[in-house]
Design a protein that fits this description.
Two copies of one chain form a homodimer. Chain A has 14 helices and 16 strands. By secondary structure, chain A is of the alpha/beta class. In chain A, strand 3, helix 6 and strand 4 form a beta-alpha-beta unit. Chains A and B meet through helix 1, strand 2, helix 10, helix 14 and strand 13 of A and helix 1, strand 2, helix 10, helix 14 and strand 13 of B.
Chain lengths: 427, 427
């Protein structure tokens, strides 16, 4: 069986590599034609998609899949429209491929610049969320790449139905049918193969829980765009504008609890803690957020007569925790230096914000906090491809190399050097 | 013993990580002061450096090291001056750290941009070339990184002497003494440790032979800026300007045989092969270059009455070979399509050039050849950090992600997102 899977994945890899030569050279028009045709197919095959998805949902429910996962697996009429609209939006984005920038003439006479080009073949590994199939396919194709998509096995029928729409779109545009391949097996060995084929796969993008991503990062023989924890911080500086504090913390922590850019930890400068923390605490308590506070912060919050049930002493492990829940850790720090050191020690290098009116401390925070997004006077919730203007997002990278932070089409490309000569030779 | 090495490398790693926080925040002035002080120390300690190097060379000669390697190991008066001058040149380069670009205002009111920041800790693994110690140290420091340098064991005394100059320079500039650490052991286990410390090391740059780099790429648990083969091509297109052909091929192949950007394979469009190949062949024969040609090219070269000793039938493996010697493979191709397919199949994605006056084929070659440098009407020998205007080069990357092609200071940095807000929250 595993030999079969190995052979199957090698075949997909070889086909993807061959297709990637053609997608790299494909015109913007052909790629957009394919994306719009896929969207049309998805709308037309609505009934078939819903039926395939119902099969998956029934099987998963019978197998006892938990409600949150069932919810992600389920396709609704609205979800199908959103999938098609997503494809149309990606068609409308500018094509990054072929853009030549930074051309300069050198003393030798040559002109040197950079050209943006696809990475080649992208492997996407994700959980049982059928909408990711369409979304990832579109981002990979628009950026001139071939893709191999491996979704969660619970969604296999939904993914097959979506794959049929993708295939129809590719064919209508005259693009290679292997440009986007959906792995058509639920055998888990397929993932192990996909991440160890450097000759066929240029980069792996895992989308899913931390466990999945850690495993892939550990075992991959191919570069991985990793997104691990989002342990994001807001630091209330000595010179924070009181009018900005509660709105930012409220939005950063309570707008939604599950996204990775939600704030999990609040740092407060000692000199202003007694002044600001009671107001912040009252807002959090009113929203039902549990506060895990260090002794100093706890004392201030207790004096402010906040409901005792919401106040818990913080333990060391709280500083590292990504709660994804109505819980926040709170710590008093002596200074900006301590805040930066704390974030760089306990944070996850995702997104961190300072609230301050002080120019020098704002600039130091931006420079010295070693995270993929650093912010002044804004909610950490803004760390997002759409909010940053990328138009779309394949994920948020906590890698330092290649793509960092929200990854859009550019993150699925690289730049090569181009030299325009006129017969020059080197001295 | 290995426990000791493990502990030792962990200590270096921890120290480097701590120092990297300070080098990241260091001013351009402090970094340049350190680099100029290192250069001055190297000049002042000339006698000590020569003595330490003599010890290494004597030991290596007694151990039977081959002449080419002995030559690389040896430091001369001139080599010491070049090392110091190199440091001064890197001090004179613009500081990439902290540069903010691409700032745009978003509909939400936030302004989003990118800030260039150091990678953190860079591990450099190289062979017994003492000058690399100074050069790599300078590039890492200028780009705001901490570095752990592991040179070939034959150069241990030379490297210790250079490390003393580096340390003195760091101290004079008030920079952390652990910003640049030279691994002070000849135990090979040190390399294995260095490449498996993701918590302390952000990226590995191996400089050396293919065997070293392959091993490191295989075993590393840290991203590697790889440079494998340079199997570079020149393609003579149907519309090649005859006046450009011989000068470019001569320079690309024969200027120097050992660099990675030297051309190893010549492709010639069938329609013009009989016209151009005899002249190219005569030049190559005159330079003593052996031609390994496919049957068609061989027939043309034989008809041209070139010395039979220089003409050899090519075998399949010749298309993949990086000769690093006065040997070139020659193949006739039907068209640009075949040339591109050949290069993408057999090349090493390093540097490839087309000679043509045809605009459309030139642009297709640039776009479709999947190499780190692609050129029109210029010698492949230009693929070099200095020739491209990077000012310095830590290596040439054949990776597709992160740094591609010649890697200068920018390749040792990444970009993070910076958000300038005014109290905005997300809707």
């Amino acid at each position: 069986m595993n030999m079969d899977i190995q052979q199957y994945m090698h075949t997909l890899g070889r086909q993807a590599r061959a297709a990637s030569r053609l997608t790299a050279a494909a015109s913007t028009h052909a790629k957009n034609t394919a994306l719009l045709a896929m969207a049309a197919e998805i709308r037309q095959r609505r009934a078939a998609l819903l039926a395939a998805n119902a099969t998956d949902v029934d099987t998963a429910r019978a197998a006892g899949l938990e409600p949150a996962l069932l919810d992600r697996l389920s396709l609704t009429e609205k979800g199908i429209d959103a999938m098609a609209t997503g494809l149309e939006q990606i068609a409308a984005l500018p094509d990054p491929v072929g853009e030549i920038t930074d051309v300069r003439r050198r003393p030798s006479g040559i002109q040197v610049g950079k050209m943006r080009v696809p990475l080649g073949v992208i492997g996407i590994i994700y959980e049982a969320r059928p909408n990711v199939t369409a979304d990832a396919a579109a981002l990979c194709l628009k950026s001139g790449n071939a893709a191999i998509l491996r979704g969660g096995s619970e969604a296999i029928n939904s993914n097959r139905a979506i794959a049929a729409c993708i295939l129809a779109g590719l064919e209508q545009a005259g693009l290679p049918v292997h440009a986007i391949q959906v792995v058509d097996t639920t055998d888990r060995a397929a993932v192990g193969e996909l991440i160890t084929l450097p000759e066929f796969v240029d980069i792996i993008v895992p989308r899913g829980g931390k466990g999945l991503i850690e495993r892939i990062a550990r075992e991959a023989r191919v570069p991985v765009i990793k997104h691990l924890d989002g342990n994001c911080h807001v630091y209330i500086d000595d010179d924070a504008d009181p009018a900005k504090i509660v709105p930012i913390v409220e939005n950063a922590k309570t707008q939604r609890y599950s996204p990775c850019n939600t704030t999990e930890s609040l740092l407060v400068a000692r000199a202003v803690a007694a002044r600001h923390l009671p107001l912040v605490g009252a807002m959090l308590a009113a929203k039902g957020v549990e506060m895990r506070a260090d002794p100093e912060a706890l004392a201030i919050l207790q004096q402010a007569k906040l409901p005792a049930a919401r106040l818990v002493p913080a333990r060391e492990e709280d500083w590292r925790e990504e709660y994804l829940a109505p819980i926040i850790s709170i710590k008093i720090v002596a200074s900006l230096d301590e805040a930066i050191a704390h974030i760089n020690t306990y944070g996850s290098a995702h997104t961190d914000a300072i609230i301050t009116e002080n120019y020098t401390r704002a600039m130091r925070f931006l420079r010295e906090v070693d995270s993929s997004s650093v912010m002044v006077n804004a909610s950490t919730r803004f760390a997002d491809g759409f909010e940053y203007g990328l138009g779309a997002e394949i994920g948020i990278s906590t890698n330092k190399i290649h793509a960092r932070g929200p990854v859009g089409l550019e993150g699925l490309t690289s730049q090569k050097w181009v030299v325009f000569g006129n017969g020059e030779v080197r001295n």
